[in-house]
Amino acid sequence: MRTTLLIVPMLLGSASMAAAGAAAGRAPKAPEGPATARPDKPNIVFILADDMGYECIGAYGSTYRTPNIDRLASTGIRFDYAYSQPLSTPTRVEVMTGRYNHKNYVQFGFMNQDQKTFGHLARMAGYATAIAGKWQLGYNSLLPDHFGFDSYCLWQLSYSKSSGERYADPLIEQNGKTLDRRRDDYGPDLFADFADRFIEQNRDRPFLLYLPMVLVHEPFVSTPASSDWNTNSEGRFKSNTRYFPDMMEYCDRMVGRVVEKLRREGLYDNTLIIFTGDNGTGKDIVTAMKDGTRIRGGKGLTTDAGTHAPLIVAYGARQGRAGVCADLVDMTDVMASMAQAMGVAVPAEWDTDGVSFLPQVTGQKGTPRSWVFCHYDNFIAGADKPNPQARRYIRDHRYKLYSTGEFYDIQRDIFEKESIASGGGAGEAETARAKLAEALSHFPAWRVGDIPVAKVEYPGLKSLPVRITKKER
Ligand SMILES: [Ca+2]
């Protein structure tokens, strides 16, 4: 299954940008010039679902009902080889900064405060910026602005999860205020309300809207569209996997809502919509596929079940094309793609790693990667021994090489049960092993247990003591 882009027109400006793109691992540089040189600057809506592997989406063969996301896939590009990190914070830091984790990842629930994000990049390009959904990158309400977002509506910003959850009766902070809590409120609705208002308020200027959705992470609870939302209050709070299909449907409804809003405001055709997931589905979830197979979630694992992300990109009727793309993509590529769409270059000193997939979205060949890379070391602060799950690998469409030397044919061995001994593979496998080993050798050496990047926390932005609220029921 290779790239099957249907139409290949030449688009203004894009061809030269694509040609300027360097080899895999380098972000293509957009043309120099003042931000005002492009009056047609597209808006960007970036939706990052929580704990949703590719197998949860109808367009990828799932039996869950996701008609809105499927429509986005049929009108845009469905990428079939997109990979995330195995866990939330490692992906969030990687996608927001466009950098592999060995450069800047410190610990779960935190982002180093000397980092630059796509929020900063959008500001540089003259965009209005906003974020709505899950934060979990440091307990301080000044951080969204610090990381490039003008306005926010967030869960787990300066309150911990134990103070309030994200679904029914949510504990949400919005632009400096803690919202009143109501048992009948449902977090995803409030984030969508905020997104609607942000789109309305910025309909006449370019904007970046980042939606790190709280769905479909556990607890697996009922949604306002569940049949027992009104009759079974326990279902709103007590996790039960039977609600997972309802959560998928609600997530899809939220995606449909933002697309519909863009259409109503006349902005859809000038908006780049990127939908993906931060890591594999929870391990308690087994998804039935239309072809009869069943796929168990693998959150936290470096196998496909933990890292194979959905990636659907729509770019309106004028610029975007419809089709399926088999090029390799990883999470560092999102910032590079945004930069190209916004017509700005990522500053060289940000030291990013992505390759733009925007050309593929507009029907051009682009500069496809020959590998994707994963450095995963979910270092736990204060732990006295190395994280046993820490791993590093590099892969192509079929083969995967770990820094330990383990080597797998994913097409035949998706659970990575049987490492192919050096020299023991067929010609194609050994060629791939040599290619991947060569690419891996360009990354700085690392072994499990190496001390990771130092934590950077500025005095005015320190994580505050976790705030506890008294809930009134
Ligand atoms: Ca996650």
Short description, anyone?
This protein is an alpha/beta fold and 473 residues long. The chain has two domains: 40-375, Alkaline Phosphatase, subunit A (3-Layer(aba) Sandwich); 393-452, no CATH class.
Low-pLDDT runs: 1-39
* Main beta sheet strand tally, sense and closure: 11 strands, mixed
CATH class of the largest domain, named Alpha Beta
For the largest sheet, list the strands in their spatial order.
Answer: 1-13-3-12-9-2-8-4-5-6-7
Q: What is the CATH-assigned architecture of the largest domain?
A: 3-Layer(aba) Sandwich
Number of helices: 13
Structural class: alpha/beta
Note the run of SSEs as H and E.
EHEHEHHHEHEEEHEHEEEHEHEHHEEEEH
Radius of gyration: 21 Å
Report helical residue fraction: 10-25%
What fold name goes in the CATH topology slot of the largest domain?
Alkaline Phosphatase, subunit A
- Beginning-to-end CA distance, first to last residue: 54 Å
> Which ions and ligands are bound to the chains?
calcium ion
Q: In CATH, what is the homologous superfamily of the largest domain?
A: Alkaline Phosphatase, subunit A
Query: Mean pLDDT, rounded to whole units?
Result: 90
Can you characterise this structure?
- The protein has an eleven-stranded mixed sheet, with helices on both faces. A four-stranded antiparallel sheet has the order 14-15-16-17, with helices on one face.
- Helix 7 runs parallel beside helix 8.
- Helices cover 24% and strands 18% of the residues.
- It is α/β, with parallel strands linked by helices.
- A hairpin with a 4-residue loop joins strand 16 (399-402) and strand 17.
- The chain has 13 helices and 17 strands.
- The longest helix is centred in the middle third of the chain and has 21 residues, at 244-264.
- The N and C termini lie far apart (54 Å).
- The protein folds into two domains: 40-375, Alkaline Phosphatase, subunit A, CATH 3.40.720; 393-452, no CATH class.
- The protein binds calcium ion.
- Calcium ion binds next to loops.
- Calcium ion (CA) binds at residues 50-51, 88, 217, 278-279.
